[in-house]
Amino acid sequence: MPQRLLIIGGTRFVGRHLAEAALAAGHGVTLFNRGQSGEPLPGAESIRGDRRGDLSALAAGRWDAVVDCCGYLPGEVAAMAQALKGRVDRYVFISSVSAYADFRQPNAEDSPLGVLADPDTTVVDGDTYGPLKAACEQAVRQVFGEQALLIRPGLVVGPHDHTGRFTWWPARVASAADGEPLLAPGHPEDELQFIDARDLAAFVLHAVAQGESGAFNVATLPRVHQFGDLLQHCVEAAGTRPQVCWASSAWLLAQQVSPWDQMPLWLGEDPGYAAFQRNNTLRAHDAGLRCRPLGETVADTLAWWRALPAEQQGFPKTGLPLERERELLSRLTTAQAS
Ligand SMILES: NC(=O)c1ccc[n+]([C@@H]2O[C@H](COP(=O)([O-])OP(=O)(O)OC[C@H]3O[C@@H](n4cnc5c(N)ncnc54)[C@H](OP(=O)(O)O)[C@@H]3O)[C@@H](O)[C@H]2O)c1
C-alpha cells in the first residue's frame, strides 16, 4: 500500500537511496533538508529547512512515517520528534551499530549501549558518535515509544557513498596496472560486514510496511564476507590484474599505518574492535532483510565512481597516498626476503 514518507535528509547517500526506492515503489515522498548536499530526486516534494533551527515548515504536514537520516545529537532528535508528534505515525531513526558499548563480542539488539562521558556534549567525534546515537535513540523512544523503529546499520556502502571507505578498494584496484603490487591489510580471511545502501533502503521500507518497531542491526550476516573475497570481486569488476600483497596487521601497525582511515575497512589488532564486523543481524534477516551479492555492490560502486567528474574521484580523507603505499611495499618485500 502506498505510504506517505517524510525523510529528514534524503539528497546525499542513505536518504537518497531511500527516497529513490520509495518513489519507485509509488510512495509519496517529502524531503526536509537545507539544500546544501544535492538536489531532491524528481517526484519528491521538498521542504527547505535546518533541523537545528525553525521546524515550523513541518507543522502543516501529515505522514505515515518519518525516516530521520541525519540525527547525531539527542537534543536535535528530541526537537524533531516533538515537532512531528501527531504528524507521523512512526519515527524511524537511522542509528548505527556504533551505538553499542563494546565491540569485543558480537552485538545483538539487546546488547548494552554506549554511554556518554559528558551527557551534554555536542561534539561528534570518534569517541562520542556511538554513544550520541544511543542517546538519540532514547530521545526517539521517549516521544514515540512502541512507534519508534531504530535502524542500526553496519558500514553502509555502495554508489553515492561520500565517505570513500568502501569505494577506496574498487577504485584502488581499478587504478592499478596489470602486475602492479597492491598493498592489502591483514589476512585474506579477515571478516568484513557491511550493508549496501540500497538493501538498507529496501529493508527500511519493508519494515515500515510491516509495522516493525524496536531496534534492528542491519548488515550482511556475520562470517559471509572476507577481505580476500572483496579484493577478488574488485579485480573482476575492474578487469585489472594487480599483484595483491598481504601485509600482516602487526607489520602494518609497526609501520604506523592507521587502521580504518589509511587502510579502509581494516581494523588492525585492537581487541576492543575484534567483533565490530561480526554483529548479530538475524533479527533483520528474519524480518526480511535481503543483501545483494557482493560482486554487484562492487561493480555498481566502481561504475558510479568511474562516472564521477575527475575532481571528485579523489580520496581526501581515506586511504594511503600512492607514494606511501609504494614505500611500504618496498619495505615489505625486503622484510619478507630477510
Ligand atoms: N555511512 C555509514 O557507514 C553509516 C553507518 C552506520 C550508520 N550511518 C548513519 O546513516 C545515516 C545517513 O548517513 P549519510 O552519510 O547518508 O547522511 P548525512 O550525510 O549525514 O546526511 C546527509 C543528508 O542530511 C541532510 N542534512 C544534513 N544536515 C542537515 C540539517 N542540519 N538540517 C536538515 N537536513 C540536513 C543533507 O542535506 P543538506 O545538506 O542539503 O541539508 C543530506 O540530505 C546517518 O545518520 C549515519 O549516522 C551511516
From TrEMBL:
Residues 6-219 form the NAD-dependent epimerase/dehydratase domain. This is NAD-dependent epimerase/dehydratase family protein. It comes from Ideonella azotifigens.
